Amino acid sequence: MSHLDLPLHRYVAFEGIEGAGKSTVVRRVAAALRDDAEVTVVREPGGTPTGERIRSILLDGETHLAPWAEALLFAAARAQLTAEVVAPALADGRWVLTDRSVYSSLAYQGGGRGLGVAEVRAVNEPGLRGVWPGVVVLLDVDVDVGIARQEVADRIGGEGAAFLSAAAATFRSIAAQEPDRFIVVDASGPVDDIVDVVLARLGATR
Questions:
Q1: Given this model, what pLDDT does residue 86 score?
Q2: Whole-angstrom distance, CA of residue 28 vs CA of residue 4
Q3: Of 179, 182, 134, nearest to 7 (Cα)?
Q4: pLDDT score of 73 more than 70
């Protein structure tokens, strides 16, 4: 099966700024889907030995990275995850749920760092080889709420309200441009309601 033939509708990304509740929602949706399907859950950056090493560089609060070095490291970890885990899982007919995806790079590095959404998309596309999330769940939350929910901020999460506001605005802009791909959910609501909305879109029931 070529990458162009993979069932990308089963590749679901959960996005949003820090404190949006992505990890909790991913776990709950995965548990519901596992009632009658095989599910692989991954996170970005990470998900492979190489990706986890890159993750420590990217999120270590003591690390200083130039914006393009940061963007390229995310792209490298993502390319490895796609080749090693995501594409094979989709080829096996599994659902793949990811806590962050290429859309985080578009929002954080493209928008937040000011590198440009199109430019960041261009450096990610060769490594993904067409394996792009078919569904993106954007958990939309006020920046101040998201910051308050963080227990310990990593290097990027600790960049401050202006940076996170730029990333959030970019997420919303992309969602408006790709309405068939995105599910935008108010992340300030009850987790049960968020999970129900996502499962309804995916054609599953709890």
A1: 98
A2: 29
A3: 134
A4: yes
